[in-house]
Amino acid sequence: MTSNIPGRPKQINDIIETVERYDTEKIPLLHEYIDEQLANKVQYDSAANLAVLKLYQFNPDQINFKYISAILTKALTALPDPEFNLCLALLNLDICNDPTVSRLWELQKSLEQCRFKDFWVLLADEETKKIVSCCVGFEDSIREFISHTIENSFVTISKEEIGAYLNLSGNDLDEYSKGRNWVLNDNVYTLPVTKENEDKPKLVKENVKFELLTQIIGHANEI
């Protein structure tokens, strides 16, 4: 059986695609695979991570909060895909109320609601920083999501505002903006036009009464 997930080892695929996904003895292997994902900025395997949470759900004695936190942290990097919510759906109320899970949930809500400035304030907390530090490229992935959201919403935006959204300033913001082809003029960035942010012609619908329509047609016939 061949995996369709880039980077997924055959051994992991054999677990995910068979009844072995219900075998608690496979949990250590799945944990190792989570560690691999955390070390790789672009690798994310939703099915494998959800399988771990499902095993925890069926076997509460196997719950490992370190890996719950790791899975949720990695799920944040998959935004705008609904991975974080899919993970939450497999966690019971006690787990959701865990302080670490609650912190990650607050991060997710701030991003989902486009409260980007609030996100960086939350992330500035030392304990929260420590939680997400397990994930290589975490901030880069979040900035990618924020940038994509901004580009789909604005054609122009002030340098100050976009810097606050991305928590970047000075040379860091200048270099980042060049990489995304944002053009700066008088402290205002012009962003690439997309089908989401471009101006669309408004469709104006006019209702013409039947009596008026017959008069118009009659007048046209007289010409």
UniProtKB/TrEMBL annotation:
Which biological process terms from the Gene Ontology are attached to this UniProt entry? formation of cytoplasmic translation initiation complex; regulation of translational initiation
Q: What does this protein do?
A: Component of the eukaryotic translation initiation factor 3 (eIF-3) complex, which is involved in protein synthesis of a specialized repertoire of mRNAs and, together with other initiation factors, stimulates binding of mRNA and methionyl-tRNAi to the 40S ribosome. The eIF-3 complex specifically targets and initiates translation of a subset of mRNAs involved in cell proliferation.
Q: Which family does it belong to?
A: Belongs to the eIF-3 subunit K family.
InterPro entries associated with the record: ARM-type_fold, CSN8_PSD8_EIF3K, eIF3k, Transl_init_fac_sub12_N_euk, WH-like_DNA-bd_sf, WH_DNA-bd_sf
Instruction: Classify the main location.
Output: cytoplasm
Q: Name one GO molecular function term.
A: RNA binding
Give yes or no: UniProt keyword Cytoplasm: yes
Subcellular localization = Cytoplasm
What is the protein name given in its UniProt record? Answer: Eukaryotic translation initiation factor 3 subunit K
- Annotated CSN8/PSMD8/EIF3K domain residues: 64-202
One Gene Ontology term, aspect cellular component: eukaryotic translation initiation factor 3 complex
Which keywords does this Swiss-Prot/TrEMBL entry list? Cytoplasm, Initiation factor, Protein biosynthesis
Renumbered to this chain, the signal peptide range is none
Q: Partners and quaternary state?
A: Component of the eukaryotic translation initiation factor 3 (eIF-3) complex.
Alphabetical list of SUPFAM superfamilies matching this protein: ARM repeat, Winged helix' DNA-binding domain
